[in-house]
Amino acid sequence: PPPSSASPAVTGAPASRQAQVLQVLLDAVARLIAMPAQFRYEFIGQTIMHAPEASFLYEQSGEVLARHLLDPGLPEEEARERLALLKEALEDLAAHQVAMLEGYKAAVRDGAERLIDYLDPDRLVEDTEEEKGLRRFLPAIVRQDAYEQIQERCRELRASDWSVSEQRFYRPAFIRAYLAREVASSSR
């Protein structure tokens, strides 16, 4: 038999413990590799279709992974193909994590800017001056109108569910940055 590449600590561990550790890892991997597709469905509304030969990876079951990857009767070529599919799914998970960070940064940066623009008194004054005809000649009234609009917008934001503000100000930037990073990662 070929020399073992396992460390002495692994080869000295009882087989039952090795099997338990492997099962814990497979269960975790099974849950993790399903997360990017689940996230995209729930957060962005995209359904990700997986190739039939890779479907075993997305059943969120460590036992299914073990059966498909460790079956002793599996031909060597098919075992290599399945292992390559697992590696690709793990690379997708890593890309998802990086895209999440990019999306978060963009949401904070661009979302805050959109919120500030929404409450910007100078913009409201400009809009009011354009809309109100003769009122533009009465700057104090225009400023008062802008102030009242800001108050109303603040009341509206406070009264609405947090998800309304999240979807209006933060989510668009997050989705753009997330998808841009995902596309960049998948084209490598």
Give a description of the structure:
The chain is mainly alpha-helical. The chain has one domain (8-186). It contains seven helices and no strands. It has helices at residues 8-12, 15-44, 62-70, 76-119, 121-131, 139-159, 162-186. Helix 2 (15-44) packs across helix 4 and helix 4 (76-119) packs across helix 7 (162-186). It is elongated and about 85 Å long.
List its salient traits.
mainly alpha, elongated, 77% helix, 188 residues
Count of all domains? 1
Write down the overall geometry.
Answer: elongated
Helix content: over 70%
Q: How many β-strand runs?
A: 0
Number of helices: 7
Structural class: mainly alpha
Q: What order do the SSEs take from the amino end to the carboxyl end, as H and E?
A: HHHHHHH
Distance between the ends = 38 Å
User: Could you list the spans in which at least 5 consecutive residues all have pLDDT below 50?
Assistant: none
Q: What do the pLDDT scores average to?
A: 87
Major sheet size, sense and barrel closure: none
Whole-number radius of gyration? 27 Å
Topology:
Elements: H1 8-12, H2 15-44, H3 62-70, H4 76-119, H5 121-131, H6 139-159, H7 162-186
Task: Characterize this entry briefly.
The protein is mainly alpha-helical and 188 residues long. The chain is 77% helix and 0% strand.
